[in-house]
Amino acid sequence: MKEIVCMKIILASGSPRRRKILSDMGYDFEIAVADIAENIVRDESPADHVKRLSGKKAEKVAIDYSDDIVIGADTAVVLDGEILGKPGSEKEAFEMLSGLSGKTHTVFTGLTVMIGSEKIKRSDYDRTEVTFNELSESRIREYVDSGEPLDKAGSYGIQGMGSFLVKSYSGEIDTVIGFPSKLFEKMYLEVRSCLSH
Questions:
Q1: To 5 degrees, how large is the angle CA 186–CA 187–CA 190?
Q2: Whether this model's pTM surpasses 0.70
Q3: SS3 88
Q4: Which end of the chain offers a freer environment for a tag, N or C, measured as fewer CB atoms within 10 Å?
Q5: DSSP for 106-148?
Q6: Which of 74, 124, 126, 174 is catalytic?
Q7: Residue 74: active-site member
Q8: Per residue in 60-112, pLDDT tens?
């Protein structure tokens, strides 16, 4: 069994937002981007959706980093039971944001923490309720034209230019950004505990 102090932490994500949260928490880590198909499975709950995709990302990276601690993450915006992924175009981003305007939606972020060689794997999720301001077409168009929505679930980033969209939220803001820090700390301790037994 490998000592945990010898293990590297590998973040299976290219997201600068996730990278910043993990760095701000004081962890040293490396990046290995997992390129997977982020498909939506019919009748799958949002919680299962983000746990499944975070797991697939971690598993793919763990093939090359089996002796290290690999972290996968996935975020989904859910409105009226429908999962809103990343927009495929500016038109789709505009439609998503128009649909979110003045409404409350839920952001789910799933995390998977695993050590492949030890067959240790934990997946969990957190959720935060977010309420949008009423948005004019011109403000939405201006935001879409900035390019920020195009690589984000639900077409917005709460921590960036898109902060003006949000009226209020209930839960952890890190979950909306895409990396629930409190949940990660809990899961990381669980994985370390498994390794020490």
A1: 90
A2: yes
A3: coil
A4: C
A5: EEEEEEEEEEGGGTEEEEEEEEEEEEEPP--HHHHHHHHHTTG
A6: 74
A7: yes
A8: 999 999 999 999 999 999 999 999 988 999 999 999 999 999 999 999 999 99
Specify the 3-state DSSP secondary structure of 37.
coil
- CA-CA distance, 100 to 133, in Å (whole number)? 9
**What distance in Å separates the CA atoms of residue 19 and residue 67, rounded to the nearest whole number?**
21
Give the three-class secondary structure for 33.
coil
114-143 tens-digit pLDDT: 999 999 999 999 999 999 999 999 999 999
Structure tokens at 121: 């794997």
* CATH, domain range 4-196: 3.90.950.10
Q: Domain residue spans in the chain?
A: 4-196
